[in-house]
Amino acid sequence: MSSIETNTASMLKMYDEAITPGMTPLDTGLASIERDRVRAKLGPIIAEQQQILERIKTASFAYLIEVEAQILAGQDIPDAVAAGRSFVEAELGRRVPAALDALKSAQERLATGDHEALSQAAGSCRRTIKALADALFPPTSPTKTEDGLTVSLDDDHYRNRLIEYVRQEKRRSTHADLLISNLNVLSTRLKSLDDLASKGVHTRVSAAEAESCVSWTYMLAADLLRVALDSDANAR
């Protein structure tokens, strides 16, 4: 999967490469034609690679849900999952202890199994990602998208802040490049966490929903923390 991610990130950089400013009108026109030719060639390849990556992520997510059920049943945690979990917990502990506390709380409540605890687990998942957002991209003034739309980046709009964080880290993190290519997926997962946490206030959250919520939280946190690690490494 890493080679596909690297290739996709490289092609996205080529696809997004801007025309060098300051050229003559003729050279600019020729460069524009060449850029359109490259984009026409790369576009279908990038789309195919992104679909492959999304299928891999979907399969990984399904596997993680199954593993979570195994954990609850008392079975051993597979090494790969244990390593991923250790990474998330170690990085959260180092960067955002409050997020780690909320995540551990979610797991404890999930293990309890009663309806109130399951609802609280979903709320703890949202607090985990919110705390991570506050650490990576604190509340700030609104910004405008490339389409001219105003996006709120205040305390309440932590989902917007995380997406903006990924956008701004694009040039310093290969992992951010890959997340940007699937921003709709990132946005959907963030919204799913909010929806489950909000549901817990009004109605019962099922065990399966709570398990999904915890799994999504680990996956989201892992993606965002890897962007942060990339950024730290390239800032040195």
| Count of distinct structural domains | 1
Helix content: over 70%
Low-confidence parts, pLDDT < 50 over ≥5 residues?
A: none
* Alpha plus pi helix count: 9
Rg is 20 Å
Mean pLDDT score: 79
What is the overall shape?
elongated
In the sheet with the most strands, the strands line up as 1-2
Structural class: mainly alpha
Strand % is under 5%
By DSSP, the count of extended strands is 2
Order of helices and strands: HHHHHEEHHHH
Biggest sheet, open or closed, and with what strands and sense?
2 strands, antiparallel
Distance between the termini: 27 Å
What can you tell me about this protein's structure?
By secondary structure, the chain is mostly helical. The chain has one domain (about 1-235). About 80% of the residues lie in helices and about 0% in strands. The protein contains nine helices and two strands, in the order H-H-H-H-H-E-E-H-H-H-H. It has a two-stranded antiparallel sheet. A hairpin with a 5-residue loop joins strand 1 and strand 2 (about 150). The two termini are about 25 Å apart.
